[in-house]
Specification:
The chain is an alpha/beta fold. The chain is built from 13 helices and eight strands. Strand 5, helix 8 and strand 6 (194-198) form a beta-alpha-beta unit.
Length: 326
């Protein structure tokens, strides 16, 4: 084995069995080419949570709105989840959905957000951003930033404590959350208390061993990753002239960013870039809590929430939120 090669670690036995038993519709989106994007979008939309279930027996108020997008761009759909009991102002979680830059909407992981609203007493705001390839960079991250600005500017109306506003994203949403945090730092706000980057998509260069380990297996393999980045960046993907607001791993300076929670599976494309980003944040003086889940594949805690390792990952994120938001 050369220094540039790596061996895929074994799957956690329970998660490996789950992966092998996934329905064909989910296995079909393991390795996504550009022509597969429409099917990927259909599969993603089929997994939206039941809006009635988000109310959690009346504990959560569910509201859909459109808010102003970036200058000259369309309005943005947002999903707002608020507690119905107890006094505010509340901490707030601003959620950026995943989907490889090409799929998903503000309803993704809304069931998790509703649980946090109910059990932790937070306001959840989820943004629906424009998708690549129809809307390449900088449209997605500018949409995410515009939604964050709207949330902060309407903190009083939403009964939000602006000192306790955090951003959360998973997969492509984790990359966009990191990029939005960079924009907020560089544009002088809004201030973010924390960032939660769940298996984040951070680097378009496919230069790490883990970015090449998975080929036709797991979730989001090397082919899928190339599809997502090329949809976002076109021919610039992997080249020398890519903005850190598209690929946060390219940022030269990570100082002054909010404290971070980062977690990633050991058997996934984003493993090495997530570990490297956590290390670079630490070297820049940013507090980081980092988890690498042994034998776990991309999105394991969402696709297999009852697995023992998934339960540990879910509990770790919940405990972090409870600790930092008080």
């Amino acid at each position: 084995m050369t220094s540039s090669e790596s061996i895929r670690p074994p799957y956690d036995p329970e998660l490996g069995a789950v992966l092998a038993s996934l329905p064909p519709a989910l296995r079909a989106v393991c390795s996504i080419r550009p022509e597969d994007i429409p099917v990927f979008r259909v599969v993603n939309s089929s997994m939206r949570p039941d809006p009635l279930a988000l109310a959690r027996g009346g504990a959560v108020r569910v509201e859909q709105r459109t808010v102003p997008g970036p200058p000259g761009a369309p309005d943005l759909p947002v999903l707002i989840l608020r507690p119905t009991r107890g006094p505010g102002p509340w901490p707030a979680v601003y959620h950026v959905h995943g989907g490889g830059m090409v799929s998903g909407d503000e309803w993704e992981l809304a069931d998790t957000l509703a649980e946090w609203v109910d059990l932790l007493g937070v306001v959840g705001v989820a943004v629906g951003y424009r998708l690549a390839p129809e809307h390449p960079h900088p449209a997605p991250v500018e949409d995410c930033y515009a939604g964050l600005r709207w949330t902060a500017e309407h903190a009083e109306e939403l009964d939000i404590d602006p000192q306790r506003l955090l951003i959360w994203g998973s997969s492509a949403g984790g990359g966009l959350a990191a990029a939005t945090a960079l924009l907020a730092r560089d544009r002088g706000g809004p201030a973010l208390a924390h960032q939660i980057l769940q298996c984040p998509m951070l680097d378009d260069r496919a230069r790490t061993p883990s970015s090449r380990e998975l080929d036709g297996e797991g979730f989001w393999d090397r082919t899928s990753n190339e599809t997502g980045w090329r949809a976002l960046l076109g021919a610039a993907a992997g080249g020398v002239d890519v903005s850190p607001y598209a690929a946060p791993a390219r940022a030269a300076d990570l100082g002054g960013l909010p404290p971070a929670f980062i977690d990633v599976g050991q058997v996934e494309t984003f493993r090495d870039e997530a570990l490297e980003y956590a290390a670079r944040l630490s070297r820049a003086g940013v507090p980081v809590e980092l988890h690498m889940w042994p034998g776990a594949w991309h999105g394991f805690a969402v696709a297999a929430p009852q697995a023992a390792l998934s339960q540990l990952a879910i509990a770790a994120r919940f405990a972090y939120l409870r600790r930092v938001l008080g």
